[in-house]
Design a protein that fits this description.
The structure holds 2 protein chains of 2 kinds. Chain A is built from 12 helices and 10 strands. By secondary structure, chain A is an alpha/beta fold. Chain A has 2 domains: 169 residues, P-loop containing nucleotide triphosphate hydrolases (Rossmann fold, 3-Layer(aba) Sandwich), CATH 3.40.50.300; 76 residues, no CATH class. A 6-stranded mixed β-sheet of chain A has the order 6-7-8-3-9-10, sandwiched between helices. Chain A has a 4-stranded antiparallel β-sheet with strand order 2-1-4-5, covered by helices on one side. In chain A, strand 9 and strand 10 form a beta hairpin. Chain A starts with a strand and ends with a helix. By secondary structure, chain B is an all-alpha fold. Chain B has one domain. Helices cover 74% and strands 2% of the residues of chain B. The longest helix of chain B has 27 residues. Chain B is globular and about 65 Å long. The chains are: A alpha/beta, B mainly alpha. Chains A and B meet through helix 2 of A and helix 7, helix 8 and helix 14 of B.
Chain lengths: 256, 302
């Protein structure tokens, strides 16, 4: 589904991402973890076309999207959320979802005028459905900036789904959440997976990553140091060293 | 109706077009000091069409607005790649360039033994179509407000449509808009073209009301004012810039006792509002609140 081939991004002398190769299979929840500054968010930004890559390639379903602009990667089927929540604060919850329906499917279905006036009934139904899914139905007319933190996180996820993506990039969706909210997120991610959406999950909250992912890659200083199932990663000595900076207890490594 | 009142109201109507034009760009987050250029292009263009080519008024107005829209598009394509302040400077420079071109632009033909047409810095006299058609000042005022109403309806439709939300999205966070699959630069060019047409309608109306235009009318102060109207009145609704125009022309300029202090009061007002209400009197939050109130009130009636 998503393939990164010896992907690199250098900022001056800093190798933020260094010869990174990985392959995410269709339908997987793929975890991308690593210590702070290890290049996870940069990788997400490279896939979305926010930064131009230094070298290497990004393939989506075999199609080269390395040089796609951000607005083209969405049309290609990739939607994302952000580490620090980014919403349109002046728009209502409903509008935030409504204007995000710019995936390939919607572009083909609606003609120009429809798209820019009101959208058709199906477009509005799909907003309703996402409001239900995210538990935001009673907040539909609130301005996004007036929502509580957890609600903003849910809205961001719903907005990404609004584009009906094939691949969802989640950049630390559990940051700042309490245990209960993390549990609900875990649940929601599985439901999204059941809809056939592939997920690349960048996350620090190990309970979530270890529980929900099918496969994990670990980055350190821009390089991939390990890849495998959650169980394999927990037992990997290289991973423990990266997290703890030397010999250390594996339990601490697993707890992140 | 009192002729003085008619002239004040006509002025408010015409200036509202250029205020709405600047407002549309403000929605997309761009500060243009140069909307007076499109006002000027259409004033000259429509004047030439009616006074020199013998076109009817509506055709002349349409022609002027089209020219303004085309010019705005051509300017927008290179300048909207600039960000923030650089875009503002570029629009200012372009508007001054247009004004200076009109200072030397001479194109006259002889009609009934008299030379008619733009004559450089002496301006363009005898745009007499309205005057010759025996349209009264009051009737012309109705024409102005009829067109203004059409443009306002357009704005209200836009605000409810996705396109309006997209403009506001770009104003809030262009990068995020891109990541929603929308080509922000293309939408900005569209907004600039629409803004050019709106300013152009005002310019054409202006030329036919005063029958005389000269380049120095279209100086930077006109652009600064049109920008300030939206910032004072509010960016939450198209009624915001109209409120701004009303405050400035209807109140500060027209009440003779204080008109001498107009610029001082106006400047002070801008400064105070930028501090206490950075997005104007009718800002987004206020409009949102009013709309909810209104909806609740409607529900209560059922």
């Amino acid at each position: 589904m998503l393939e990164l081939k010896v992907l690199s991004k250098h900022f001056g002398g800093v190798r933020a991402v260094d010869d990174l190769s990985l392959a995410v299979e269709k339908g997987q929840i793929f975890g991308l973890i690593g210590p702070n500054g290890s290049g996870k968010s940069t990788t997400v930004n490279l896939i979305c076309g926010v930064f131009p890559v230094t070298s290497g390639r990004v393939l989506l379903d075999g199609k080269d999207i390395t040089r796609a602009q951000p607005h083209q990667t969405l049309a290609a089927g990739i939607a994302r959320t952000f580490q620090n929540i980014r919403l349109f604060g002046q728009l209502t919850v409903w509008q935030n979802l409504w204007v995000a329906q710019n995936g390939l499917e919607d572009r083909q279905r609606e003609n120009f005028l429809r798209r820019w006036m009101s959208g058709n009934r199906r477009a509005r139904e799909s907003v309703e459905e996402l409001l239900e899914f995210s538990g935001l139905a009673d907040k539909r007319d609130a301005l996004a900036r007036n929502l509580a933190f957890g609600e903003q996180r849910r809205l961001e996820l719903a907005r990404a789904l609004s584009a009906k993506p094939k691949l969802l990039l989640l950049d630390e969706p559990a940051a700042g959440m309490n245990l209960e909210e993390v549990g609900a997120l875990d649940d929601r991610l599985r439901k999204i997976q059941d809809r056939g959406v592939t997920i690349l999950l960048v996350e620090h909250v190990m309970d979530l990553v270890m529980g929900v992912t099918d496969r994990i890659a670990v980055l350190n200083f821009g390089k991939k140091i390990a890849e495998g199932t959650p169980a394999e990663i927990q037992d990997d000595p290289a991973v423990q060293e990266a997290y703890l900076g030397g010999a250390g207890g594996r339990r601490a490594a697993a707890a992140g | 109706m009192d002729p003085y009142l008619v002239s004040v109201l006509s002025n408010i109507g015409m200036i509202s077009f250029i205020a709405l034009s600047a407002y549309l760009l403000l929605l997309t987050g761009e500060i243009s000091f140069g909307q007076q250029a499109y006002f000027a292009i259409s004033a000259y263009g429509s004047g030439i069409a009616t006074a020199m080519w013998g076109w009817p008024f509506w055709a002349g107005l349409l022609w002027g607005a089209t020219l303004a829209g085309l010019a705005a598009t051509l300017v927008a394509i290179p300048t909207l790649r600039l960000r923030g302040l650089y875009f503002s400077i570029a629009t200012l420079a372009f508007a001054e360039m247009v004004r200076l071109v009109f200072e030397i632009f001479t194109y006259q033909v002889e009609i009934d033994g008299e030379l008619v047409g733009p004559d450089g810095s002496d301006g363009f006299r005898d745009i007499r179509y309205i005057y010759d058609s025996n349209v009264t000042a009051f009737e012309y005022m109705l024409v102005i407000y009829g067109l203004l109403a059409l443009v306002l309806i357009g704005f209200f439709v836009l605000e409810r449509a996705r396109l309006g939300s997209v403009f506001r999205m770009i104003g809030e966070d262009p990068m995020l808009t891109e990541m929603q699959g929308l080509n922000a630069t293309a939408y900005k060019v569209l907004a600039a073209a629409m803004a050019g047409v709106i300013a152009g309608i005002g310019g054409g109306l202006y030329a036919h009301l005063t029958t005389y235009v000269e380049p120095k009318i279209f100086n930077v102060m006109l652009g600064v004012h049109s920008l300030a109207y939206g910032l004072i009145g509010g960016l939450g609704t198209a009624l915001g810039p109209l409120l701004g125009v009303g405050i400035d022309i209807g109140f500060l300029e027209s009440i003779r006792a204080i008109s001498g202090y107009r610029m001082i009061v106006f400047g002070g007002l801008v400064a105070v509002l930028l501090i206490i209400r950075p997005r104007g009197i009718l800002d987004e939050a206020t409009v949102h609140w009013l709309r909810r109130r209104w909806r609740r009130w409607i529900h209560a009636q059922d």
